[in-house]
Amino acid sequence: MSAYSALTAAGYRAQVRDKTTVFFTFAFPLVFLVVFGLVFRGKAVEESGFSYLSYTASGVLSWGVANAAVFGIGFTLMQWRADDILRMIRMSPAPLSAVIGSRYVLALGVGLAQAVLFVGVAMLPGFGLVPASRWPLLIPVLILGITSFLLLGVTIGSIADTPESVAGIANFIMLPMAFLSGSFFPLDSMPDWLQKISLVLPLRYLNDAVSGSLTGRGDLADIGIGCLGLVVFAAIFGVLAARTFRWTKKS
What we know:
Layout: H1 2-17, H2 19-39, H3 52-82, H4 85-91, H5 96-122, H6 138-159, H7 163-180, H8 192-197, H9 202-214, H10 220-244
Helix pairs in contact: 1-5, 2-3, 2-5, 3-5, 3-6, 3-7, 3-9, 5-6, 6-9, 6-10, 9-10
């Protein structure tokens, strides 16, 4: 517990000191909310009758939280390995669970803070988002989403050895996934073949579960399916993370 507490405290201090990362972690999703909110203000998706905001707010929130989880752990593991911090931790009594667990707690804190800020802005008169009565379900949904994408970030951070490679791999995965999963545009207005492709992407399930919880689109079964999908991907990414994790550049 002492190792876990020390790593968590050190990670928190490092995170809040990096003002640029803090700014973009919280401001970047809000920029998309403002842009899409202004462009599609007052418009509805014909196929569903829901407003574009109900789609884009949920999708951008999901993408922002997932992005922060992937990049946060990915860059940290890469940098700690490059600076031999992981090697020193390995030589200490601290187990690997303390290393990942400390970053997990930080990722949960960042993700939930992102959600509070994002939903608060989306509820302002200029946007007018009205959360559904089932909005408390958003909390466990986000926890599952952060868990899944954090494990994906562990895999990326274990494979990549430079900041450029972390950014390249993560963006190569996350940006196309955002478009194909309906984070920026409603899946209902996309061709059927794109909707089918999205079924093999974890962000699709996070989008659906967040949308069902936050805006009431769909029913409880849709939220359950989204959560089940995230659990499956968390297991897959967990296996990949365990197989690819490296304490040093060589092992």
